[in-house]
Amino acid sequence: MSRDVRMALLGFVLLLPGLVLVSSGLLGLEPVGILVHPVLVMGGLLLAFALNAILLFRVRFGQEEDALIGTVSLRLRGTALNLTALGLSCLLLATVTVYVFVENFQPR
């Protein structure tokens, strides 16, 4: 099993608490208590995003002809599993963030 596939599978495991929280909220079910701890949910989502983003994006810094010129290039690479885990982590992070904002918003 390649490193990309292992990281994608680890990302999916880390996404489980966030997926349980969001899906139980949308379906009106009572979520499992231990899985909805904020550290598990947000930590898992952020860690899954970071692990898959490291594999998918490459940032380069360079210098040309003794000048202080820096270049940053992003290159998208990886497997479809990594792209799926990254997209799902972004979607779940956005959903949880919007929910927290809407739940705590008070017009003045």
Give an account of the 3D structure:
The protein is an all-alpha fold. It has one domain. It is built from three helices and no strands. It has helices spanning 3-27, 38-56, 80-104. Helix 1 (3-27) packs antiparallel against helix 2 (38-56), helix 1 packs parallel to helix 3 (80-104) and helix 2 (38-56) runs antiparallel to helix 3. It is flat, with a radius of gyration of 18 Å. The mean pLDDT is 87.
Topology of helices and strands:
Layout lengths: L2 H25 L10 H19 L23 H25 L4
Domain tally: 1
How many strand segments?
Answer: 0
Secondary-structure-based class equals: mainly alpha
Chain oligomer state: single chain
Tell me the series of helices and strands, N- to C-terminal: HHH
Shape: flat
Helix content: 55-70%
- From the N-terminal CA to the C-terminal CA, the straight-line distance is 55 Å
Evaluate the radius of gyration.
18 Å
Percentage of residues in DSSP E strands = under 5%
Number of helices: 3
On the 0 to 100 scale, the average pLDDT is 87
Major β-sheet profile: none
Low-confidence stretches: none
